[in-house]
Amino acid sequence: MYFEVDGEKIYSAGNLVANNGSKPVIVLLHGAGMDSSAWVYNTRYFSAQGCSVLAIDFPNHGLSKGGFLTSIEAMASWVLRCLDALGVDDFSVGGHSMGALVALEIAGLAGKRVKRMALLGAGFPMEVSPALLDAASKDLRSAKDMVVLWGHGSDAYKGGNTVAGINIMKSAHLLLERSLPGALFNDLNACNEYQNGMIAAGNVCAVTIIISGKDDKMTPPRSSMGLLEEIKESSLAIVEKSGHMLLSECPEAVHLKLKEALFQLK
What we know:
The protein is 41% helix and 18% strand. It contains 12 helices and 8 strands. The chain has an 8-stranded mixed β-sheet with strand order 1-2-4-3-5-6-7-8, sandwiched between helices. Helix 10 links the parallel strand 7 and strand 8 (234-239). Helix 3 (98-110) packs across helix 9. The longest helix is centred in the N-terminal third of the chain and has 14 residues, at 72-85. The chain is globular, with a radius of gyration of 17 Å. 50% of the residues are buried.
């Protein structure tokens, strides 16, 4: 679906369902240099269950127009403006990597408006390698190579996909390659510079599950411990045989955790 925010045309996979009853509105936020297609498995499932689900492309990502948002705080405020424009009050939110930081900031700002939250590949601080930032700032192919190589666990290097003919790592590379120039650097830099994580975590009212890949080299499970201590109702779920790209490395295991985290009646 398309809608307008700040005078720009914005795209979201999924849709709002009239007379949604007790089913939550589920908001899904993609990671750095990516877009809403990362959530296709989950969007289709939640939509089939009669949920309102919004997997939103950030400005200048995917099918959304507008200029880049250069900070996690700006992204969070923008998502809340999107939800206000669509008339969404209470909601649950899930985010991956950069999207997890945005979800965290949203939950810190919106308080009880956010009912449940899933943070995938989340850590704080989310520091980014200077070498990766430098390559991304120059739009070098090596930046995408680094994300793909560091972002996957060892099983992905050997294939790892249960669907014949689909290569996990090549699919990730193609997703990053279709992003616009400057997108990856903008997003990685926003993650690297974000400082408000612990303050936001202390303000979270949502029941939260942090979903972490056991082999995640970018945001290892230990990097989420501070968030777990600050968020009042939170727990950690470890996904075996996964690195940072949980949604594609272990789609079924991660989906079951997302259902547990977000698909709960109000």
